[in-house]
Amino acid sequence: MGISIALAGNPNCGKTTMFNELTGASQYVGNWPGVTVEKKEGRYTRDRDVTITDLPGVYSLSPYTPEEIVTRDYLLSGQPDVVVNLVDATNLERNLYLTTQILDLGLPVVVALNMMDLVRKNGDKIDVEGLSRRLGCPVVETTALKGQGVEALIAKAIEAASAPTPCASSAAPSSAPAASAPTPAASPTCASAAPASPALRFPGAVEDALAAIAAIVGDRVAPARARWFAVKLLEDEQLTVDALDLSADDLACIAAIREALEDAEDDDAESIVTNARYDAIGEVCAACVERSPKALTTTQRIDRVVTNRVLGLPLFIAVMFCVYYLAVSVAGGLFTDWANDGLFGDGWLYTGTEQYEATVADFDAALETAEGVAAFEAGALVEPDPADFGLYHVGIPVVVGGWLDAVGCAPWLQSLLLDGILAGVGAVLGFVPQLIVLFLLLSFLEGCGYMARVAFIMDRVFRRFGLSGKSFIPMLIASGCGVPAVMATKTIENEKDRRMTIMTTTMIPCGAKLPIIALVFGALAGGDYAATWWVAPLFYFLGLAAIIISCVMLRKFRAFAGEAAPFIMELPQYHIPTLKNVAMATWERVRSYIVKAGTIIFLSSMVIWFLMNFGVYEGRFGLLDTSTDGYLGHSLMAGLGGGLAWLFAPLGFGSWEATVTSLTGLVAKENVVATVGILTSLGEAGEGDPGMWAGFAALMGGSSAAIMAFCAFNLLCAPCFAAIGTIRRQMASAKWTWATIGYLTGFAWCVGLMIYQLGGLALGEVAPSGWTALAVAVLAGMLFLVFRPAPGDRARKASAAAAAQGA
Ligand SMILES: Nc1nc2c(ncn2[C@@H]2O[C@H](COP(=O)(O)OP(=O)(O)OP(=O)(O)O)[C@@H](O)[C@H]2O)c(=O)[nH]1
Ligand SMILES: [Mg+2]
């Protein structure tokens, strides 16, 4: 017969680690509380008849948070034959609180004392026999991380499940609402079950009250579960009261019992029960746990430095600097260039690069002269072939291009495949090596327990702006790429905080936006870095300021009103994470990035290619000849840009070219510079080319204010398709995705308007007009939203004032 085992316990006590060990699954394990949020089922590898269910970690069985409801419903459902209650043995007092509640359920329970490796390392001792006797259930020592004790644990669980009594699986009343107590399964062994006499007893008055309530409930519930219902009725938990369908008389009797107890103890019933539990646990621990007199554990010693008020922040900045240096500079420099220019570019030369570059420079210099050009045309001067200089391989586009040529593929299809799809998908995949390194390092920091501290440190800063410390990690990641940043918002439990973070985090300039900043920088400063060094940091500051202002403003709306959720996170013990866990966490993140490249980017690259390569030329619609100058002016994209250009006129860049540039940026921000290249007929000159700066400045009508407005708009507006796709997934709602796109684009437009109209006015580039008035109005509106009290604040202040007056 199949046996169903439920794994229940506090957050971060090792349930998923145990589950993976038992079932061979690879569910996500992280070193912070609240990793698992829904139940997962698997089969025991050594006995396929045994089903194991991993449940979200909970501190109690009260139906408040979604995780608590999932766990409580499952335990009450009658499905588990036995509950394996994992407890973090390094923190027995707190963990046993849930144990006492699980014991009340009347199901067979086996307690797993997990993390015994840490207990031994700390030099503490636990009397397992004594604990088992006092709790009235088997207790097994385990170290899930190393797979120790897990077989003995399951053997005990199977034994307990097979014992004929006690049984509570048919105990839930049939009228119980589905939300809390799904329909029970009938079980013949229960008919004769005697009322369970709890091993863990409360003070006499409480036990008397419970017995009296149990008598009123009578046989409406199975005897084994009578205690659970009696406790819940004493606590006056509405869900249970509704479920039992008691008569008005019975309810009045129970209320009288409760009031009598509350009067006698001078406390409310819920607190009385909670205190009774803690007192009982205190006695158990005093008798069974012997703490080593050692003053501080390793974790406490590390935390003294890491979470220190003065040292915490600088230390964190140093750690992050190292992570970024390794990922972006070292790995990025090594691998991303290789992936972008080698694998998805022309090819890559591993050795003899210096000699090759020198020869190319000579070749380029020769082409500058008339003789050189003549020699080149005559075939006397040949472009140097990198393959002659050392170890070289060609890029995928070259290989694919060769195949397509060989099979006589139509030029338009070649262009679609190479310039459209391969270029688009390749640009995204080119970042994969960098991301792997970044995520490996971040997963390590997460797995060892450091990230939980970071959120705690940043909370002190962020709280002032209505954001929780947990929003910081996404923003940090966003400076690399918005996609993983949006995914990282998953760890923010509070829905409002999470939505707000998703909506704003992509305002931080990501790696792909840096070329835009460089281009603007060049166009404004003409390469005079010494005099204008402040332009680039200015845009980072703009991103950060935009987030802060947005959060302060958004908090004034009902959908986001309220303070950031109080920062409650138990700081886990430090430990070296297993290689498997780090690799899994990294893969999980990289995988979604790759999947996105294969789906959203794939499709959008095709669409953009189509819009840029098709159009009406000499009265005929068709594929444009990309070798003619200004072909883009005839494309569908130009038409689209022309149609939308009026939107950007107030921002100073109302030409179809500038509009098209912003539109292609939606696919990937890298496209902005590439499009400027095509528009200025400079090809792939790149953002560092002075010709490109001049061309770009001309595109913007030579106005510095327009250039700044263009840059601000492109940095702050809706992110690339890839990030939008991720936002859609994390928001799990089309409405919120559109709200995000709308908010970001609207906000970016307003900032662009203010920069162009007001900045241009100051610089003498723009004459006052109706738009100037609108820009002033927008500025005033923003200031109003920032400084206006949040809804509810006024009421709170008024009541506080009234209370103060009354006092
Ligand atoms: N030292 C030690 N660490 C462990 C042990 N078991 C689990 N861990 C670590 O504890 C952390 C939490 O493990 P999880 O399995 O995710 O915990 P969980 O109970 O599923 O947590 P939630 O899903 O948040 O409820 C991870 O970093 C594990 O590697 C153990 O026996 N010893
Ligand atoms: Mg888990």
Automatic annotation (TrEMBL):
Entry-linked Gene3D superfamilies: 1.10.287.1770, P-loop containing nucleotide triphosphate hydrolases
Transmembrane region(s): 310-335, 391-413, 420-445, 465-488, 500-525, 531-554, 593-612, 632-653, 660-679, 691-724, 736-758, 770-787
Region (Disordered) location: 169-190
Stretches assigned to the FeoB-type G domain: 2-163
Keywords on record: GTP-binding, Membrane, Nucleotide-binding, Transmembrane, Transmembrane helix
A Pfam cross-reference name: FeoB_Cyto
Name recorded for this polypeptide: Ferrous iron transporter B
